[in-house]
Write a structure and sequence with these properties.
It is a single chain. By secondary structure, this protein is mostly helical. The protein is built from 13 helices and no strands. Helix 5 packs parallel to helix 11. It is globular. The relative contact order is 0.24.
Length: 255
């Protein structure tokens, strides 16, 4: 019961962080590892729980999603396929490979989080330059979106930051509406990945249920708190903590 209460709180904090600064796994994944779950099981459990953040965040972002149904369908289809591919890749490859990659992935995700303001400025560039130009789709940009969704299904930390950056290049909309699309389409990447993880028996349900409940709550209240929370402080704390955690994992795994 004590661990479940902690995971509920972790889920709420991570759900808020996901909607405010596009990161959740840097909070929830280390918590699952600290409770003794193996890396692959912790990752699968985290992904299943993340589905509920998407639901909460999408409900909270309904005003920003108005008029964007076709975009959500287009990018959602790509995310659904890519998420499944990423999950299958994780399951069929050796757990040792994932364990080796985790410190690198966490460090990379933490660095992206710290660089997010610059990434957001790049993402907002096309809209500022020509707000009437319409959407900019190309084979390269759509392939990039697919690659991000594969990464989301495989691990996922900072996948939202990458998705926002790509969507910002492809769509002439304010960043808040781009972030809403990311919230809605990430559900499908995490959902298809979750199906794969559930079928493979990689999910720890005792941890997934309280974490998912927290994600749902945090994802729902995140958009409401986004205007009041200091994003810079939250981003810095999560990013620096992630780098320290990656260093710890690296010392333990590579030493």
């Amino acid at each position: 019961m004590e661990q479940q209460a902690v995971l509920l709180l972790v889920g709420i904090l991570a759900g808020i962080a996901c909607t405010v600064v596009n990161i959740a796994s840097l909070i929830s994944y280390p918590a699952l590892l600290s409770m003794g779950l193996p890396p692959v099981v912790a990752n699968a459990t985290n992904t299943v729980s993340l589905v509920f953040t998407g639901f909460g965040a999408t409900l909270g972002s309904r005003p920003e999603l108005e008029g964007q149904r076709s975009r959500v369908i287009r990018f959602g289809a790509i995310n659904a396929i890519g998420g499944a591919v990423g999950a299958v890749t994780l399951i069929v490859t050796s757990p040792d490979i994932f364990q080796f990659m985790v410190p690198i992935l966490v460090a990379g995700a933490s660095a992206l989080l710290l660089l997010q303001p610059k990434i957001n400025r790049v993402a907002a560039g096309p809209a500022s330059a020509d707000c009437d130009a319409g959407d900019h789709f190309s084979f390269l940009s759509m392939s990039g979106m697919f690659a991000v969704s594969v990464y989301t299904g495989y691990f996922g930390a900072a996948g939202g930051i990458l998705a926002v950056a790509l969507l910002g290049v492809m769509i002439d909309e304010p960043l808040v509406r781009i972030n809403a699309i990311k919230n809605a389409t990430n559900i499908l990447a995490n959902s298809t990945a979750s199906v794969i993880f559930i079928i493979s028996g990689s999910v720890h349900y005792g941890a997934a249920l309280p974490l998912a409940a927290g994600f749902l709550l945090g994802g729902g209240i995140g958009p409401l708190l986004a205007r009041k929370i200091s994003r810079g402080l939250l981003r810095s704390l999560a990013g620096i903590s992630g780098l320290l955690f990656a260093a710890k994992l690296g010392v333990e795994g590579y030493g």
